[in-house]
């Protein structure tokens, strides 16, 4: 046999469903609105995570791209002469396009200013390094 409390609970649940009220006091519209915001929040968090990974690829001291600097210094005749001047980058699709301006000694021992360009993944892998 069902008690009076059972009937009261059933009536209360039915009333809440009819009026659109949730158990925590929010309306049904508020709960729908918040559930629609979840993909936007996740997308913003993902975007912040990607931006943090990108910023982590650059030196805090002189803003040089660390992987591109290592790659270049391995190929210089006088790696100790390397001086970073400026690094530019922009995002295009899923990759970064990085351009670095630097000075280094050439084969004759004179300093030359050069540019290097590379495509870089958000994780830091170099693709297509070339002189500009």
From TrEMBL:
Residues 27-39 have a biased composition (Basic and acidic residues). Keywords: Signal. Residues 1-23 form the signal peptide. It comes from Sulfurimonas diazotrophicus. This is Uncharacterized protein. Residues 27-49 are annotated as: Disordered.
């Amino acid at each position: 046999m069902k008690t009076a409390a059972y009937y009261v609970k059933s009536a209360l649940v039915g009333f809440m469903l009819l009026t659109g009220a949730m158990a925590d006091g929010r309306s049904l519209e508020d709960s729908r609105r918040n559930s629609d915001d979840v993909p936007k929040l996740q997308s913003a968090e993902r975007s912040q995570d990607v931006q943090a990974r990108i910023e982590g690829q650059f030196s805090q001291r002189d803003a040089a791209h660390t992987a591109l600097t290592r790659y270049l210094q391995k190929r210089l005749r006088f790696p100790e002469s390397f001086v970073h001047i400026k690094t530019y980058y922009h995002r295009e699709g899923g990759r970064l396009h990085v351009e670095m301006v630097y000075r280094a000694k050439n084969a004759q021992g004179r300093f030359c200013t050069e540019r290097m360009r590379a495509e870089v993944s958000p994780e830091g892998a170099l693709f297509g390094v070339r002189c500009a």
